[in-house]
Amino acid sequence: MGQNPERRPALLDPYAGEGLVAALVERLLPERPCTDYGAAGGVPARREGAEETVETTEGTRDGIRWLADWDGWYVGLTFARGVPPGELALRLGAVPGVRPGPLGARDAWSLAGETMDGDGVARVGSWAGWSFAVEHGLPAGAERLAEVSRSGAEAVHLDPQPDHPPRQFAYARDGEVVCCFGLGEECWRGGRQPDFLLPELVAAGLLEPDGTHAGPEDEPGAERDRRTLAVLEHRFALSLPRRLIEETPLPAFVTCTR
């Protein structure tokens, strides 16, 4: 990420002592101590060692189809059911001992810029029955989705792929990737059960019953993405308000993708 290679390792070395991490967090958040895992921005949280969780008060169900029109969609989103938020962070490769405290999006991006290449920053919480991770920098969800879903859990990953479209979807269950495809490229599906969502995609007019492309070729990309996101929203009961991603300080972890 263009940082000085002589400086980066010290910031993320989990055995280098807490002083360096605390100094970094103090620079980013001078008025909020790194040990404050209490309520922030209307999001009550509690600290329980490795099992830290955050429970978010639910209001209007926003769904996820709004992502198709969001110009700021540069973060990976990983959802997990059957796994609390703190455990989700661990399964995404959270670096031991690096807990920068509640972060909003801007501070998370700043911290991601200070980490070593191959690392990201995940802000975690829960909403609508799913734990979620908002992944800044390099997302770990794509590489670790099977691990996230082990032991009977479910996991959904949405990757915006801003530099290499199309946006990507993947669903895993009990340690295996069940189905995956690119938004707008649903005719090219992978995973153990590539036709897992075929009935829903056909009903939405996105695919023909044989799994080939359906719908007008000149359909705007955002509209097609919105229809695919609507299928995922309905099938998995996914919902995540935009304010949680953009504005709300959430417990944050540095995740290692290597």
Compile the SSE list and pairings:
Blueprint: H1 8-12, H2 18-28, E1 45-46, E2 53-54, E3 76-81, H3 85-91, H4 105-112, E4 119-127, E5 130-137, H5 141-148, E6 154-159, E7 168-173, E8 176-182, E9 185-190, H6 198-203, H7 221-236, H8 242-246, E10 252-256
Antiparallel strand pairs: 1-2, 3-5, 3-6, 4-5, 4-10, 6-7, 7-8, 8-9
User: What's the total count of β strands?
Assistant: 10
The N- and C-terminal alpha carbons lie at a distance of 15 Å
How confident overall, as mean pLDDT? 79
Poorly predicted residue ranges: 1-60
Helix proportion: 25-40%
The dominant shape is globular
User: Mind telling me the C-alpha Rg?
Assistant: 19 Å
**Order of strands across the widest beta sheet?**
9-8-7-6-3-5-4-10
Count of DSSP H/I helices: 8
In terms of structural class, how would the helical and strand content be classed? alpha+beta
Order of helices and strands: HHEEEHHEEHEEEEHHHE
The percentage of residues in β strands lies in 15-25%
Query: Could you state the oligomeric state of the chains shown?
Result: single chain
What's the main sheet like?
8 strands, antiparallel
What does this structure look like?
The structure is a single chain. A hairpin with a 2-residue loop joins β4 (119-127) and β5. The two termini are 15 Å apart. This protein is 26% helix and 22% strand. The strands form 2 sheets. An 8-stranded antiparallel β-sheet has the order 9-8-7-6-3-5-4-10. Strands 1-2 form a two-stranded antiparallel ribbon. It contains 8 helices and 10 strands. It has 258 residues and is an alpha+beta fold.
